[in-house]
Design a protein that fits this description.
The chain is α+β, with helices and mostly antiparallel strands. The protein has 20 helices and 27 strands.
Length: 758
Amino acid sequence: MSWLKSGAIALAALVVAIVVGLASWEPLVAEESAPPPQRTYSAEIVRSEYGVPFIYGATDADVAYGVAIAHAQDDFFTLQDVAAMSKGRYGAIAGEDGAMFDYAYQLLDAGGTAAREFPRLPADTQALFNAYAAGLNQYARENPDEVKLSGLFPVNGVDVAAGFVLRQPFFYGLGNVIGPLVEGEELRREYGSDIPGFPREGTQIDHATPTPMPGNETDDEATTTTQVLETQADARRPLVLPKGEEADHLGSNAWAIAPERTDGPTVLISNSHQPLRGGVAWYELGVQSGEGWHFTGANFPGSPFPFLGHNRDLGWTNTVNRPDMIDVYELEVDEDALAYRLDDEWRDLEVKTVTLPVRMGPLTLPIRRTIYRSEHGPVIRNDDGWFAIRYGGMGSAEQLDAYYRINKAQDFEEWQSQIARLAIPSTNFIYADREGNIAMIYNAAIPDRPEDVSADWRGILDGTRSDLIWDGPVGFEEIPSIVNPASGWLYNANNEPFTAAGAEDDLAPGDFSPVLGIERKQTNRSWRAYKLMSEAQVFDRATLEAIKYDTGYERRGYLADMYDALGALDESDLTPDLVEARALLLDWDFTADNKGRADALALLMIRDFMSAEYQNKGVYPDIREHLQAAVDHLSEHFGRIDPPMSDLLRLRQGDVDLPLDGGSDTLRASTTWSVEEDGRLALVHGDSFIQWVEFPQDGGRVRSRSIQPFGAATTRPGSKHYTDQMRLYVNHRLKPVRFYQDDVRAHAASTMRVTNAF
């Protein structure tokens, strides 16, 4: 029987070898990045009393190097996730969820695009990104015990650029096209206005003719056609990133008010709604170089510069917009799956096999996938056929340069000239400056689709027609913008750009081609902001604070639908607890202020109705089942159906646990939460970085205040800056922004010099 024993030993050895191989293969086969060009950098990191870093350097590149180190000191954990995404290796850290990003990385050719386009950027922009990469590499070398994935470093400027190329398209809905195509599901569509009544479960939501703002009505016949076409343009564009980013409710609020309406400064209020943690969570910082770069604001992990904020003369903020930026083409592919027909000839499909690392416990599995590409763009094969995707900003990395340039702009003309490049593929810009200018730019690199061809741009296009393959965006003059409206105010709350400045100044939808696919939607925040702004006589601090932190709802849209459905419920068919809950909700004051008995119930009810509308799901939740689930949750965890909402909704980080107000789609946004073991709802997405900027008209210094939900040291539990802004946040308070160097140093909690001298 010795042969059996020998066989068992051999089998055991083989199993061990396989396990060892699966545990160690990924770093060995991963493509190693060349380090950035060798150069000496030196920066000073000065932290405020709240730990917010201000980075000083002789050159812009020195500052970018310091930005990387400062951010790594506070959140190297997340920076590594972003670095792994930027190299197509996130699955080796985050398993199946990470592999979804890696598939998108390969499908979109993010690495190839960055490698091709990065060398074409101006030398100073390349230097900025290489310096940032050098800072990340230095922190990784000096802190090897924090590195999560072997071989992840060094990174270089091309790797950092690839992260931008990968993530930007998901802000305008690419994930909700890729996902259904990969799964062979129907793309989410919007439906016409011929569907009567409330959309019960299994029926469709009618979004085709949104209710206009008071005073914003336009010609009925022209508007109906435009509204239907443009609403359909937004049909498959809900804001969903690959699983794990919690981006289904990405939003934001923004306001700009001219000095004649404030009786003082030009005011800019930045109120972004992002996940509070992770790769698209805001990080606050300030920068100043000897080359004239002086800015304070916030960025996402993986960026060498702020994405929003202000310098001495001007500032801006962003809100997510939802234009039709994506077209899908059905290809005719030959039997061998090697070629596709375009007009009267057959073209070779580009074919590449990639290996996606998928971590499963201690092992990392190699999952093989085939990536296809046609002249249209990335190609996905499913049971229904072959589909190519083309999207705004595809194949470009110019946004890296555009963001850098607007950081250093000194006046509106210089700033707008960079926005006009449409290099930043999407997001609205709300602008204000020292000269009293305010502006709203519906920034979107909308495809320059030919209007003189027969095609349904909202449906699946004929992939055999080369005349449907557009090249580049429309001109800047074709997209909506408002500069210095007579009303003296501008706002956006992820609504259509046709309600922005009041009835006398708003743009007319009929002035813009339906082929542009500009969304025709309102959020409840938009209805509320429009009403409050239109009613205000003067925009002093108290008035603006009341608007920004408003917790009220308007009974319109999905909320009106929900209440109509509640009212239509037959009480004789309800249990006593549902009868009581229904009565509480029907008597609710539509204010999520922690005062009403129905606030907690309303909080649980509203979010999924909002999500159904915002994501174009086509159906609302079943009202009776949804009400029952809310009642069951409150009864189980609180022993009553009317607990104070602040007992239910919490801001939690470490050992700090605080009550919150606001709700999904209120101007005080507490949008998305996780359900904790104790039944409480811990906020994960909503009001995140808030910055309030005032540009005096007397030539004085720009003043600003800000807040973060937790603190500057976002993943460092041992730091005093892990939770030190939480109480200010829940109490609607802001902290001072230290912008000028004398103020920064006067309030410095720490100062350190960093260098990589060779």
